[in-house]
Amino acid sequence: MRAVESIRRSRDVGPFRIIVAIDGNPLAEDITRQLEELDVEIVFSAKRGGQVARIKQMVAMVDTELTVLTQDDINFDKEALGLIISALADKKVTMIGVRVVSVKATTFFESIIAVGVRLTRQIGQQWRVADNFLLASGRCLAFRTNTIKKFELPDEVINSDALMYFENRRLKGVFRYVDEAIVYNRSPLHLKEHVKQAKKFEYSQMELTRYFSAEIAKEYEVPFTGIVRAVLAEFWCHPFAMLLYSSIHIYTKWQKNEFTGSKSGFWETDVSTKRVK
Q: Global pTM?
């Protein structure tokens, strides 16, 4: 609900269509009613298929020039959608990434995990003129529809964010990061959920090797100087949180990756990131 409400509050945009794809368990009747009042088309699949399956289902339904993908726990800044549309006015651009900002922390742990969100943005902006998978966050991605319809998206892929970024590259598309377009996301409130999210992205390189060959490893070689600059900048602004985040990062690296060998394309949904503020 929050995502749809925030999108409907967007400024400087004309009429647009919203499709919500649900699988596994149907929405509660009151939520369904509220979404319908916001002029939302709801597509329900009884069999759980995972994120990629739902993305393909929605893309197949789209007949407009532009497609914006987001998630149910995201809030859009009022200007974000308009800025995305403006960036896609450049006909060469086929894919857009936006700035993801952590909502105001309500717990100490949440404020520590937000360090990682800021580091990702800082490193991504310094790397290859902001054209890299770090800035292609599935929290919000936009595409020229005739491009995304050409993507080859296997249902079993865990990290659809990186997959779509590299598919855009494979098709000679142009990615643009729009830092002024902001969406808000809640960081995990629990260590277990943070580890699960981190391991999902850690597994991505191994997973995508099956579709793009071992050459994809080069795309994951994040410049060391960019990492150092981002860490120093974060340490200067938030020294205590940076030290604690570093400890959590080391702990996470030593944990077993439950996604290795996964063929399902989905995982247990986080609870804390979807709670109402």
A: 0.91
